Structures are given as C-alpha cells and as structure tokens.
Amino acid sequence: MPEFIPFALPDIGEEEISEVVDSLRSGWLTTGPKTKRFEQYFADFIGSGVEAIAVNSATSGLHLALEALGIGPGDEVITTVHTFTATAEVIRYLGANPVFVDINLATLNIDASKIEAAITPRTKAIMPVHFGGLACDMQSILTIAQKHQLKVVEDAAHAIPTTYQGKLIGSLDSDVTVYSFYATKTIATGEGGMLVTRNPEIAQRCRTMRLHGINRDAFDRYTSTKPSWYYEVVAPGFKYNMTDVAASLGIHQLKKAKTLQQQRAAIANRYNIELSDLPLHLPALPADGDIHSWHLYVIRLADSVQVSRNNFIEQLAAKGIGCSVHYIPLHLHPYWRDTYNLCLEDFPQASYASERIVSLPIYTKMTEADQTHIIEIINKTLT
Ligand SMILES: *Cc1c(COP(=O)(O)O)cnc(C)c1O
C-alpha cells in the first residue's frame, strides 16, 4: 500500500515514453507530424466525418470555438454553474456573458428543463458540460437549441470516451465539442486539448486563430508562385497550438482510451457495490448501453451523516487518502458571484450539492488493495 493514495494519477506507458523520445530525437518539438497524426487518429476515433484540431488546452479550444461561432460583446451563453471556471471564463474572454443554470442533483449535470427560462434575445449558445464523464441530456439540449436557433458547444473535458444514445460524445449534432488532456483527465498529455467539428468553416477559422491568425491555406503552397516562406496574417489570432511532444503522448493514450475506461469502470463498479449500504448517494449511472468515462467518482453524503463534508475529507486524508471536491460551483467564487450578483438561492440544487459532495480517488493505476483500504476507511468514517 502506498503511503498516500492520490486523488488522481496519470497512466503513462513505455509506448508514450518511446514516442516522446522519438520526437525529441527528431528535432521537431512543436506542432508537426505527430500533431497531425494525433488529429487524424482522433477524428477517426470520433467518426461521423468530424475534423479534429489539436490545441494546447481545452480552455483554448473552448475559446476558439466560441470565437469561430461569432460570440461577441453583450452576447449570452448558457452554461452550468457546476463546472470548472474555464467553461465560463472563455465566454468572458470575448466580452460575452455567461448565464448560469442550476443542475440536476442526481447527475450533477445542467438541468435541461431549466434552460429555456434562461434564454433571452441576446442568447447565442448553450455550453453543456458532461460532468464527471456522464453525458448530459443532449436530446433536450439539441432540441432547445434548434428551436431557438442557438449554437451548442460541448465542454467534453471529462467525456472521452463517453457515449450518448450509443454515439460517442463529439459525434452528436452540436456545433463544436472540446476535450481536455490535462494531467488528471481520462487521457492525458500533461497539457493539451482537442476540438472537433463537422463544420468546415468553423474548422478553418479555429485552425487560423489557433496560430496567430496565420492563413496558410489561402493559397496552395505547391502550385502557388508565392515562395514557401510566405504567409498571410488575416486576424489577431492566438498561440494555442499543440506541441509534438504532447501529441506523442496523445497518440498512445488515445489507443488505450477504451481499455483505460474499462479499468475506471471496474473501480467505479466496485465502489458502487461496496459503498451501497452506507448513508451516501452514489453517482448516477449512464443509460443502458451507454458509456460513462468515469473521469470522476463523486459521492454525496446523506443528510443523516453527522460529520461535515470537510471533516470527512480531513479524516480520509489523515488515513492517507486524497479526496477532492468537484466543484466549488461558480456562484460561490468571488469573481462570478460579484460580477453577476449570484446568490445561493439562485441555484438551490448546486448550492445543496456543494456542501455534501466528495470526489473519491479513481485512476487506472489504483490497486485492489488501495481500493479495499479506501472502502474500509469510508465505512469506519460513516458508521
Ligand atoms: C479540465 C477542464 C477544463 C479545462 O481543461 P484544460 O485542458 O485544463 O484547459 C474545462 N472544463 C472542464 C469541465 C474541465 O474539467
């Protein structure tokens, strides 16, 4: 048993290490052939004719997506209050305003039945977040979007390889889907992200804005009479490209995505069984036949539990178990609270959940003995 069981741990194998070394030896460190390979492989993995655009983070990808969709000052984008700040901050990058919606307590996903009430004449888009790796009610969200002519950008930072009604997230009818490969995510490149879309114009804009607004596709470099060093800047773009070092990790992590998911699902399944008699609410399960990525395993302490959530986490930490909280909802952070005058009563479900939720350790390298220890300690703490 390790001295401390962390909350999350990446799973990097020899294949990833060799590929990174190969990149280092090749002399090509930044965006190059490995990034292109990762993009092609990712697009094939999602299927449905999507294009994949590699970026240096999901935050960058979400920013590019909203920019490409024309979101600008004064526009409104509807999203969940129960998310990481990155989801909402990219809306502010463009001078637009997030409009936060409460969650469904069981799934911790945006409550789709509350979205229509949040729509105003300024609403331009909806950004659902597949919290923890469980798909949102995308049928309702896409129907609302279509009815009100809104764009949909899925924050799929947790959602590879999550499915909804049998289809991988990323292959649904939304405009753009963005994944994160941050160190703790289900597939990891340290820092990194991927944006997928079926719309060629959005793809083109995101590619241009990903690298300084440079457009190299405006002319054919091989048949053009322009020299190979020539390029045109068509917009004040960003510096959001992925490095080949990161892509080297991504190529092999993606190959393992389904295996890694099965390992996570096995851990989740054991928690589901062995914690079922305790005074806590287990995470919602996916619909029959669908895949939960199990990026997070979030329990909610029952009202009957006397120990506070913070104390529960402290007690587990004292026994060498690293828990976390996902998330402190955005309406409790000073910036969001004060900028938009948000209060607890605006989001009763998220406010309630925020006091009771705990993310338990879940990562593929967790041993059976580790999990036995975690389950034992939780049992002792709650009974
Ligand atoms: C991790 C995360 C992001 C940001 O991902 P980065 O790759 O770190 O930029 C965005 N949204 C959610 C819900 C996340 O968990």
UniProtKB/TrEMBL annotation:
Keywords: Aminotransferase, Pyridoxal phosphate, Transferase
MF terms (GO), sorted A to Z: pyridoxal phosphate binding; transaminase activity
PANTHER family in the record: DTDP-4-AMINO-4,6-DIDEOXYGALACTOSE TRANSAMINASE, TRANSAMINASE
Residue numbers carrying N6-(pyridoxal phosphate)lysine: 185
Organism, as annotated: Nostoc punctiforme (strain ATCC 29133 / PCC 73102)
Lineage of the organism: Bacteria, Bacillati, Cyanobacteriota, Cyanophyceae, Nostocales
An annotated GO BP: polysaccharide biosynthetic process
Descriptive protein name: DegT/DnrJ/EryC1/StrS aminotransferase
Active site, per annotation: 185
